[in-house]
Amino acid sequence: MSELKGSGQQTADAPTPEDAFHETATLDSREQTHAPGAAPDGPVLAADGTPLKRSLARALRMQKIRALALIAPLLIFVLLTFIAPIASMLFRSVENEIVSDTLPETVVVLNDWDSAGGAPLPESLFEAFYVDLFLAQEQKLHTRLGTRLNYEQTGMSSLFRKSGRQVGKFDTDKYTDQFTALDASWEDPASWVAMMDNKSNRTALPFTARSWDRWVAYLNTEGDDPAKEDIEDFLFTTLYLDLAKTGGKGASDARITAAGSAVGDFETVSLAEQFADAEKDWADPEIWRVIQTFSPKFTSGYYLNAIDMQKTPDGIEKRPENQQIYLMLFKRTMFMSLVITFSCIMLGYPVAWILANLPSRTANLLMILVLLPFWTSLLVRTSAWKVMLQQQGVINDTLVWLGLVADDARLVMINNQFGTIVAMTHILLPFMILPLYSVMQTIPPTYLRAAKSLGATNWTAFWRVYFPQSVPGIGAGSVLVFILAIGYYITPEIVGGNTGTFISNRIAFHISSSLNWGLGAALGTILLAVVMLLYWVYDKIVGIDNVKLG
Amino acid sequence: MAALTPISRKPVSFYVPVVAAAGGIAGLFVGTAQGSGLLGIVIGAALLAVLAFAMTQMTDNEKPMRWGLMALFVLAGGLLAGPGGLILGLGFGWFFGWFTYWLYEGRYRAKLVPYLTPMQVLWHYTFRIICGAILVFLITPILVVMPLSFNAQDFFTFTPEMLRFDPAGYSLKHYRDFFTNDDWQQALRNSVMIAPVATLLSVSFGTLAAIGLSAEHVPFRRAIMAVLISPMIVPLIISAAGMYFFYSRIGLQGTYFGVVLAHAALGIPFVIITVTATLVGFDRSLTRASANMGADPVTTFFKVQMPLILPGVISGGLFAFITSFDEVVVVLFVGSAGQKTLPWQMFTGLREQISPTILAVATILVVISIGLLTTVELLRRRSERLRGMSPS
Fold first, then answer.
1. What interface predicted TM-score (ipTM) does this complex get?
2. Taking residues A518-542, what's their average pLDDT?
3. How far apart are CA A478 and CA A341, in angstroms?
């Protein structure tokens, strides 16, 4: 069948509608008039009478649409199952809605609080926070918020957890008692539902109305009827605060106006003191400055965290020495990936050379030795390296048996950088050999002989003639190996121990164990950016269409 | 490289020391096994030097000498180390017989160009040995895993019984464990349920798209290609994290369907790459000819195009299958305990309770990969034949 060789080339040369299109264009410009089926002075016409040019353009457009229609299902599939998840991860690395969602009232007050100017903590802050925290602990959201803020300031988690337990026992029941003493109907939840339906009541009691709405929304998610649940202390507190401010003017409900004139004589409760009694940290402006710093809906905090910086109320600063690990991990990932890439070049080059220079029958046989590990499960190879490298493993046993190593001084080759580098070099070696091999196959061996016959030594002939021609293969292989190495997770996790892990292990840790998803996403995004840059480089060097498998 | 180089016998001062050196290395191993490595080196070197000299100088008849040497070594091996020693002796005997005459007759130059200097010849063979060592490095782990999976002990290393080729040192108990243990069987079932469906998804979408992509005028071809290949390039941990967030938001996390979708996405680049590669050589005039004879596009696709690109589609499918079958990171995040696959079970096994059953599973997986590799290789050749290229 060798006479058919290069039929692909013929295909490329075969006439396409596009060629005809260009031809028509030139024909048009020359105003060819002798075409069959055309009016003597008109444009060339197709069989159905439309001008050939337009008919061709339509055919071409149809072809494009057909191609796109074939691609569309897969493209949509990949966009939905793969690109959208990646995008959602990118979004998560800056998203910080939890603070403003859980503490909406507090965030509003904090925005007006001049923390840098050393202004005292306003009482209204604690009033807003009281409502927010009460509702949050009812919904069990306060611990999550505490965990989130704990990433920025240690101690936040326990502060929120403890305060959440105490916020229901604050002395604000004094307001409840005083209102019910004034008018027993205040205790009736149904009357509240009716009261809050009225627009003028709502305008007269803005804070109460907002808190009521959140309370009702919460009850609805629980499936409870707001008209039947007891009115909690915090609603009486907001009622008192509203009335103390506005006196209930404009309310259509007489009960409100009556209470409005009475509240002046009420015994009051300072929520600032209540909070300070519960947890004295609440009196510390630093705590509030942290919450203020992280109150916006989006934050760069996770990214700063990912590069060992932190966002403090006083601006961006470095993390304490003992908490700086991410830059070190990034550097280590880079360094180890480089070492692995380099080892792959060193080991892959001779093998690719010999594969490209042996007779094809032998080369095919040896190629199986390269492809077999490539096809073998990653976990099989990793477990094999665990078997080989561990202290009671095959290599150590052999060395001890040969007397090269004492039995009590077995080499530590696993759970460190060495283990990761050896195992990953082995795993990624085929990815280096295959591109190198395909480039080396195209280098004519006669060049080397020509160089030698011109008087070059072996080394000069190799270095000046052969090597430069194999550089594209090295480039392609290196970028591929580096891209794959930099994001490796399984192998470092199993053979890496503490010193041989990569940044990806840290990402996995944050997503599955520490649940600091934002930080995990930020680290992932940085890693992704590096990989994408390399992907772009790879595309420039090799072209994605030219990736070959096996 | 088939230059015929005249070969000639080499002087005693060349081959006897070289054979002695090789004997010394072999002696190190034998000596260590018998108690003293140093003594082994000395005895081995001396013995081989004498043998090599005697064999070459006594008679010109090569065959009986080599057989005699082999018999001698087998006898010695049997006496020293029992049945294991017999095999080892046979190997050593064959090697030294061949090696002595290879050097003595100068055969090592037979296939090399005549003008090489001795140093270049030395480098030529050193280079081959280096390459051999690297290739051994590539497959050693697999070679080690296979015998260890038959270990009678629960160790991850060769026991003395195994090294003595004592049948008591071997057993199939790890395989028995794999086939009877519920955890492993459940994992196997999950893998078998997930991988084919994911493969089917990626192959059907991927083949269509690859055909679309290899049409002549596709707008944004490069960009589309970059998007479709990206699941192969993006680090798995990032894909896994993203899918975890996204799929749990839309309720797919921890479901069979979620894992299948994720695996299908990961398999797509392989299908795209192999099928577009096959389509490069596809003669487009065939479809035009078919249309000319009145076939509609669907008939053309199934009767003309599909049979020709089938090898590419199948090998793409095998790649997608092995991707899903081997995948552990994404399933770890997207799946829940109900979707525990074989690699997941191996991963937990390697990280937590180390059990040699893993090695039995590994061996089975290696056998499967050898099968897949053979299929892909045969398909590749067939496809190249179909496309009129000579298979390389």
1. 0.86
2. 89
3. 6
Q: Which residues of chain A does B259 touch, with a Cβ-Cβ cutoff of 8 Å?
A: none
Which residues on B lie below 8 Å from A378 (Cβ)? 326, 328, 343
The answer to whether B168 contacts chain A (CB < 8 Å) is no
| Same domain assignment for residues A289 and A366 | no
Residue A392 and residue A463 in one domain: yes
Report the interhelical angle of B236-249 vs A517-541 (nearest 10°): 130
**Residues A282-320 pLDDT 10s:** 888 888 888 888 888 888 888 988 888 888 777 788 888
- C-alpha angle B247-B248-B252 in degrees, rounded to nearest 5: 55
**Are A393 and B157 within 8 A, CB to CB?**
yes
pLDDT digits (tens, 9 = 90+) for A438-460: 889 889 989 988 998 898 888 89
**Beta-strand runs (E) in A299-388:** 309-312, 315-318
Read off φ and ψ for residue A11, nearest 5 degrees: -60, -45
Whole-model pTM: value is: 0.83
- The range of the structural domain enclosing residue A385 comes to 326-546
Task: Please answer whether residues B59 and B75 qualify as being in contact, where contact means their C-beta atoms are separated by less than 8 angstroms.
Answer: no
Q: What is the pLDDT of residue A292?
A: 85
CA distance linking residue B30 with residue B51, whole number of Å: 17
Residue A9: the pLDDT is 38
Q: Sorting pLDDT into bands at 50, 70 and 90, what band is B2? A: very low
Q: Of A455-459, B115-119, B122-126, B383-387, which range is least confident? A: B383-387
Please indicate, yes or no, if residue A319 is contained in any of the structural domains: no
> Which residues are registered as beta bridge partners of A310?
A317
What is each CA distance from A369 to A127, A373, A375, B134, in whole angstroms? 73, 7, 10, 10
Q: Is B163 on the interface with A (CB under 8 A)?
A: no
Q: Is residue A112 part of a domain?
A: yes
pLDDT of residue A81: 92
pLDDT in tens, A177-212: 888 888 888 888 888 888 888 888 888 888 888 888
**Where are the alpha helices (H) located in chain B, listed in sequence order?**
12-34, 37-58, 62-104, 118-148, 160-163, 173-180, 182-213, 221-233, 236-249, 256-280, 285-292, 297-300, 306-326, 329-334, 342-351, 357-386
Q: Does residue A151 fall inside a structural domain?
A: yes
Residues A86 and A117 in one domain: no
Residues of A in contact with B369 (CB under 8 A): 372, 375-377
B125 touches chain A (CB under 8 A): no
Is residue A164 within 8 A of residue A157, CB to CB? The reply is: no
Query: What average pLDDT does chain A have?
Result: 83
* Tokens coding A537: 């480089």
Dump pLDDT digits (tens) for A482-507: 999 998 998 998 888 888 889 999 99
Domains contained in chain A, number: 4
Q: Which CATH class is domain B181-386?
A: mainly alpha
Q: Is residue A301 part of a domain?
A: no
Kindly list the domain boundaries of chain B, sorted by start residue. Answer: 12-115, 181-386
User: Domain check: are A498 and A390 in the same one?
Assistant: yes
Of A247, A265, A283, the position where a domain reaches its end is A265
Q: Which of A28, A57, A92 is the last residue of a domain?
A: A92
Separation of alpha carbons B56 and B4, rounded Å: 24
A268 contact partners, CB below 8 Å, separation of at least 6: A240
The one-letter amino acid at A26:
T
